[in-house]
């Protein structure tokens, strides 16, 4: 149950996937997602106060958005994994062991945001600018759920951040075939009497990339010139990082019948959308925030 980062001389022993309370297993994956939602709310409300908005508006939005986001994240994953789920319909609602695609959650959150603002008669672009920093915080924390589930990793590497996971873990989870398909069984590493796969921790890469985007937005927010600018920067920053990192992953979701990675295609759309918005509003100064 250990996870190793040999080139950093780090070993995490007995890393479980959850805890048991009164006989009920609670997965770290779900706990971390919940913490991510709360952290995102706190950051969005802090930014709302700074810009003279009502912080309670963002609590109302979170309550309206949380369930659709989880449903959207699961639906995205199931749709692009339909070859498996059409034979296992009983597993579609089983999200305790993972299977949430962040893009589905983000798309659902955006849809709910524009609907919410239409009902409340509030500026959707201003709210999006405020919410993206909270969204990034949630994404950064949420990626650590992948750490505990031993998922969202890339192919073999011997780089600085190389991560080792015991093959025995995947055997007990019935996921050996996926390792073989990705060619990871051809690069096993022996430590003592245990065999490990050695991979890119792409969940870590994405978390660190998103942290960089968040820090940039925190620096840039006082220089904002128009509503929607922060959202545009998020689209470009997150999209570039996700496009690159997705290319390293071994578990990408593909458009059915093609070799096109769904997340890379959507990342490119985000980048182009962000660039278009910035070009369209170049030189514009329509906000004092």
* First-last Cα distance: 49 Å
Can you tell me the overall shape? globular
**Cross-sheet strand order for the largest sheet:** 5-7-6
Query: What percent strand?
Result: 5-15%
Give the low-pLDDT segments.
Answer: none
- Summarize model confidence as the mean pLDDT: 90
Tell me the structural class: mainly alpha
Give the SSE order as H and E letters.
EEEEHHHHHHEHHEEHHH
Give the helix tally.
11
* Rg result: 20 Å
Q: Supply the number of structural domains.
A: 1
Helix content: 55-70%
The tally of beta strands, per DSSP, is 7
Sketch the major β-sheet. Answer: 3 strands, antiparallel
Structure description:
The protein is mostly helical. The chain has one domain (3-8, 24-280). Helix content is 57%, strand content 9%. The chain contains eleven helices and seven strands. The strands form three sheets. The protein has a three-stranded antiparallel beta sheet with strand order 5-7-6. A hairpin with a 2-residue loop joins strand 3 (18-21) and strand 4. It is globular. The mean pLDDT is 90.
């Amino acid at each position: 149950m250990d996870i190793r980062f040999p080139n950093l001389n780090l070993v995490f022993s007995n890393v479980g996937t959850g805890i048991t309370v009164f006989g009920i297993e609670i997965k770290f994956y779900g706990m971390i997602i919940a913490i991510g939602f709360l952290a995102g709310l706190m950051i969005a409300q802090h930014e709302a106060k700074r810009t003279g908005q009502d912080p309670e508006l963002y609590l109302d939005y979170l309550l309206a958005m949380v369930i659709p986001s989880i449903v959207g994240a699961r639906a995205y994953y199931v749709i692009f994994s339909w070859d498996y789920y059409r034979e296992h319909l009983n597993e579609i609602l089983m999200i305790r062991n993972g299977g949430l695609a962040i893009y589905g959650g983000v798309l659902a959150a955006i849809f709910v945001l524009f609907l919410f603002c239409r009902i409340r008669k509030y500026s959707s672009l201003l709210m999006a600018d405020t919410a993206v920093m909270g969204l990034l915080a949630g994404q950064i924390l949420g990626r650590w759920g992948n750490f505990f589930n031993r998922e969202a990793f890339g192919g073999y590497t011997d780089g600085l951040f190389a991560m080792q996971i015991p093959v025995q873990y995947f055997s007990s989870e019935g996921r050996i075939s996926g390792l073989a398909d990705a060619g990871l069984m051809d690069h096993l590493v022996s430590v003592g009497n245990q065999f490990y796969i050695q991979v890119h921790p792409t969940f870590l890469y994405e978390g660190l990339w998103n942290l960089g985007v968040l820090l940039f937005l925190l620096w840039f927010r006082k220089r904002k010139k128009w509503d929607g600018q922060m959202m545009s920067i998020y689209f470009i920053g997150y999209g570039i990082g996700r496009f690159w990192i997705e290319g390293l992953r071994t578990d990408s979701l593909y458009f059915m019948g093609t070799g096109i990675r769904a997340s890379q295609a959507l990342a490119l759309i985000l980048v182009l959308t962000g660039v278009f918005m910035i070009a369209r509003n170049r030189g514009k100064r329509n906000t004092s925030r």
